[in-house]
Amino acid sequence: MSNALKKRKIAVLGPRSVGKSSLVKQFIENHFQESYYPTIESTFAKSVVYKGVEYDCHIIDTAGQDEYSPLNAQYAIGIHGYVLVYSIASKNSFSMMQILYDKIVDFCGVSKVPCVIVGSKCDLTMQRQVDSKDGEELAKANDCAWIETSAKNNINVGKVFELCLQEIEKMTSPNQTEPTKSSCLVM
Ligand SMILES: Nc1nc2c(ncn2[C@@H]2O[C@H](COP(=O)(O)OP(=O)(O)OP(=O)(O)O)[C@@H](O)[C@H]2O)c(=O)[nH]1
User: Fold this and answer.
1) Best exposed site among 41, 121, 123, 128 by fewest CB in 10 Å?
2) Contacts made by residues 166-174, CB under 8 angstroms, sequence distance 24+
3) Structural fold of domain 6-172
4) Quick check: CB of 21 below 6 Å from ligand 1?
5) What is the pLDDT of residues 166-187, one digit of tens each?
6) Is the CB of 121 under 6 A from ligand 1?
């Protein structure tokens, strides 16, 4: 059997300022920054052990999207799994989740993709606009995983990427390294 690490490409998508970069930075670099710098795009690599297997994860932190942004083909082709982020303090960002998920599955021409829906900034309890129950129900309706996180307080940050690997592995047959069933193929 090969000792090569299993490569998994994960795209982190969501509206502006919901905390995508903060989530990724907390996961990769273990720090949190209060100031806001809009992202263009950054890719990070980290090896993650999930269920005793080491995965070489490439995480793409993307620019904030709105409902009119076309999906960049780069975020659909060759991606194994998705992390879709809304802020629990923004109902508008939550309403983008279904739109974004539908854009991805439409682009890929599949009925579902491995995905974790993330309610970020869960430390902002006084500003909460999205009930946990609504997040959970949305995820269930789309057969996605769901979790609430705080990059600020380092709550559930690692769990997001474990859940993403879990969703990817659920849809990937053993020993398969290329995204197939759930991801786009260039014809
Ligand atoms: N209270 C709190 N603030 C957060 C959290 N995560 C991010 N923020 C703040 O929210 C703002 C936006 O965070 P970013 O991580 O830059 O958001 P983004 O989604 O990457 O933004 P774009 O690059 O525009 O897409 C920053 O001021 C962060 O400090 C969190 O868990 N709790």
Assistant:
1) 41
2) 166/50, 167/81, 167/114, 167/115, 167/116, 168/8, 168/80, 168/81, 168/114, 169/50, 169/51, 170/114, 171/112, 171/114, 172/80, 172/114
3) Rossmann fold (3.40.50)
4) yes
5) 999 998 755 555 554 444 444 4
6) yes
